[in-house]
Amino acid sequence: QQQVKQSPQSLIVQKGGISIINCAYENTAFDYFPWYQQFPGKGPALLIAIRPDVSEKKEGRFTISFNKSAKQFSLHIMDSQPGDSATYFCAAYIYNFNKFYFGSGTKLNVKP
Amino acid sequence: GAGVSQSPRYKVAKRGQDVALRCDPISGHVSLFWYQQALGQGPEFLTYFQNEAQLDKSGLPSDRFFAERPEGSVSTLKIQRTQQEDSAVYLCASSLRDRGQLSEQFFGPGTRLTVL
Question: Structurally, what CATH architecture does the domain formed by B5-111 represent?
Fold first, then answer.
């Protein structure tokens, strides 16, 4: 049973557009929600993260929106650039078990 | 300082062979994680070490998979009698702190295992 469900599987956006990736979870024990960016041949790298007591977090062009009641969170990439083309993973973390659960990934292609 | 390193980067094994994958975490990092990433999928948790203690091995798919971290630094993931379904990228990650204390998880580049 997948703990974190991610959509869409792939996404094509024009340069300058907004990329939106969505994730949903069921386990209310999760208490930290990071997003990772992965380029081919590399390991995932932390992009931005949010705690469930916050509804939005913004870092540069990247924003996480968090809806605790709906158990959903999303990543918004503003002014998308070709260099943002990568696979993005949402994840959920349980402090007490020190365990991360990852979504299935979204392959983003930003067209020049 | 160097990040997390893994070796080999690529490994081709014949079905039935044993393989050993190495992870060198960031120096001083307490926690070490192993993940399996199938093609087009997200990382799936395999096992977790706090220093040399293996605290969670619930994700290991079978008793053919074994991991160790004897001195609390370098870790080895061993797969015995490899099967085709073991083909995947094996990722190692480390973080500075222990459970209950969140700290960023740093990933290595992974080892791509292909079982023929």
Answer: Sandwich (2.60)
